[in-house]
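re: ur msg from earlier - yeah i can do the NAP complex, just paste it... oh wait u already did. ok heres what im feeding in:
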Amino acid sequence: MSGDQNRPHVVLVSEVTVDGKLTVTRGASSKLLMQFMSHEAEVLLHRIRAESDAIMVGSNTIRIDNSFLTVRHVQGKNPIRVIPSSRADISPDANVLSADSPTIIAVSEQADPVKIAVLKEKGAHIEVVGKDKVDLTLLMSRLASSYGVSRLMIEGGSTLNGQMFSLGLIDEIVLIHLPFIAGGSDTPSLVGGLATRSVDDLIRLELTKNYLAGENLITEYKVRRV
Ligand SMILES: NC(=O)c1ccc[n+]([C@@H]2O[C@H](COP(=O)([O-])OP(=O)(O)OC[C@H]3O[C@@H](n4cnc5c(N)ncnc54)[C@H](OP(=O)(O)O)[C@@H]3O)[C@@H](O)[C@H]2O)c1
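and the outut:
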């Protein structure tokens, strides 16, 4: 649990290129990059998944990557999967709805009841949090109070990371660095959409660890509360 007892402790874990990109080009799956991770880095990623009560990614990541979000490279329990999608735009055939562990689709009041019914039919738990858009702060407290989530891992993408940072909901960051430069002005980077105007707006981090996992540099940071 975070210092704020109403929400889980949140750890953002991401594979990033040297220029901070999450994928090769806009619309491309991050699996294209992940194939270059060392086995040790894959083990690290999956160990963090196994140590988390829940894992959350944005709906666009599900549409593009069609991720399972399960634990595969280590022994351990699959975390609860959490996908915010304001209008319940998740395919009923998405891998994230597999029977491996519970999946929560967080929607707003604008979500189509027919889409909700289809997702429920596929076994998803639906949480209505927010009027027009998923209210991530409310979602965090719902995860803590209704599902007992005290440790949440988030694995992107750029838009969700940006919203979580702007709401002050991220406590730690673990970056798996990949030795590439992707470039591309519209290629998603680690954090999208923050309205930084001056140094006063910068989110301040404290480097807590740096080490190698196989050939990949790993850096870990604590988010400073000012
Ligand atoms: N390298 C890595 O570690 C890594 C990890 C994950 C993803 N990726 C890559 O990142 C890219 C996708 O990133 P992305 O920025 O396009 O999308 P994203 O962050 O995965 O998903 C964003 C979507 O989440 C939904 N959402 C619902 N409520 C939200 C809220 N309150 N705040 C923010 N989002 C909310 C919205 O869609 P609705 O309209 O459905 O509400 C929004 O468009 C892909 O290329 C993927 O491969 C890389």
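cool cool. The chain is about 25% helix and 25% strand. ping me if u need the other ligands too
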